[in-house]
Amino acid sequence: MARRRFVLGLVAIAAVAFLLRDVYIVTVTRNRTISFDEFYYAGEARNLVAGDGFDLPRAGTLALGAGAHPPLTGVMLVPAAWLLDGDVAMRFTTALAGVGVVVLIGLIARKLGGPRAGLLAAGIAAVYPNLWMNDGLVLAESFTALATAAVILLTYRLLREPTWKTAAGAGLACAAAMLSHGELAVLLPLLVVPALLVTKGLTAARRMLLVAVAVVAAALAVAPWEAYLLSRYEEPTFLSYGDGGVVGGANCDATYSGPFIGHWIGLCAPSHGEPSVAAARNRRRGFDYMKSHLTRLPVVATARVGRLWSVYRPFQTADLNESEGRPKWASLTGWAMFWPLVGLAVAGIVILRRRRVTLWPLVVPIVVVTLDAAGFYGLVRFRVPAEIPIVILAATGLEAVVTRRRRVGSRRQALGDGAEVVDEVRELDLAPVVVGAQDR
Questions:
Q1: Quick one: which of 140, 137, 145 has its CA closest to 71?
Q2: Which element (helix H / strand E) includes 411?
Q3: Where in the chain are the domains?
Q4: How large is the average pLDDT for residues 427-433?
């Protein structure tokens, strides 16, 4: 009965999440001018439907060949592009991915903190602007969040059930993550492989076999795309050649001082000529600029991380978000909601540590996005992989507060209105929870 109630509650929350995202699309994002990245992903999907492959036509001097971004987003949008000519169906596709994120967040939180924490986490994810803002746009972030949540869930499952099927599933989830955003390739060596190496009860041979299964599954999923890129371009290209433009645009005068310090300027990374050659040129230019301005690098890296975590020029970031289709009011609402969630997430970390729950699968995405921002540039939408553990930890903290208040209220009622009650902090941890405790 408890599991049935949880499933019904999760389905209800998912339905509300989809309804909210539908309203957002119909009333807001469908009326906005499509951004450059949206133009790329939508055009890629339409080209695939037309049988023209991943290439896009040239836009002036700008070469939009296959591989400017990893291919997962364009592929996932193909059914919508096949059904309708406009981009509205594609926006509903990203909304569906966002609902999937809500569901996976609920499942992860249930695994760590019980059914109430799972429903609280799903409820927070359903209404959290920093998640649903992306779910009405034709961008990669919704699919990135979905893949990251799947990796986290399967990592916890590996810690409990180290089977070859789970290992293969985790490897495929890592492949999906890196095929949505290339920098998430690190989730395989930082999440899945360590989970298999630290799991107890495995022989050395079994452990290495499962590691090989996960790695091979990820490699097989990525190999066709990578072979296509290597056979197509002059310069070696891994997942996409977009990193060249990122490095070049993040390391120039305009991003090392002035109002846009820590941001990215496209004019600093001209993309003319053969795409991989242009990317290599921008990459060299960016690294050369970085080497000649090493004294400024700590300041710039701090600004980048500050932008990512909304502590440096959050209002300017909200203005910049509008150019990508994110309304300013939604960005500021997400900023206001983010900080209470961070406070609850800190409480969640303390509680789960006391319960001896393994935390590093939640910490790794936070560290990854922070290091990525320090090395390149900071933008709130790049924080999406970290929003997932933040919501889960916040729900755990909130659930503990609610549970504590209920226990205190019950005790006061039992002792009478005039009785003195001593509140003990350890009441939060009367029943230590480990991975899989919901099945007890």
A1: 140
A2: helix 384-415
A3: 2-439
A4: 45
Asked whether residue 238 carries a pLDDT value surpassing 50, the answer given is yes
pLDDT at 139 over 70: yes
Q: Which residues pair with 240 in a beta bridge?
A: 238
Please state, as a whole number, how many other Cβ atoms lie within 10 Å of the Cβ of residue 245. 23
- What average pLDDT does the segment 129-140 reach? 93
Q: Torsions phi, psi of 339, nearest 5?
A: -70, -40
Structure tokens at 21: 């995202």
Which tens digits make up the pLDDT trace of 402-425?
777 666 666 666 565 554 544 544
3-state SS assignment for residue 338: helix
Q: Residue 171: phi, psi to the nearest 5?
A: -65, -40
CB contact at 8 A, 253 and 293: no
Q: At what angle do helices 164-178 and 141-160 cross, to 10 degrees?
A: 160
What pTM was estimated for this model as a whole?
0.90
Cα–Cα dist 367/404, whole Å: 31
Segment holding 46, helix H or strand E:
helix 36-50
**Phi-psi map region of 4: left, alpha, beta (phi>0 left; psi -120 to 50 alpha):** alpha
Q: What is the mean pLDDT of the chain?
A: 89
Amino acid letter for position 397? G
Q: What is the mean pLDDT of residues 161-167?
A: 93
Closest CA to 72 of 106, 102, 105, 97: 97
Contact residues for 387 (Cβ-Cβ < 8 A; gap 6+)? 128, 130, 131, 145
Residue closest to 108 by CA, chosen among 57, 60, 173:
173
pLDDT over threshold 60, residue 315: yes
Give the number of other CB atoms < 10 A from CB of residue 372: 22
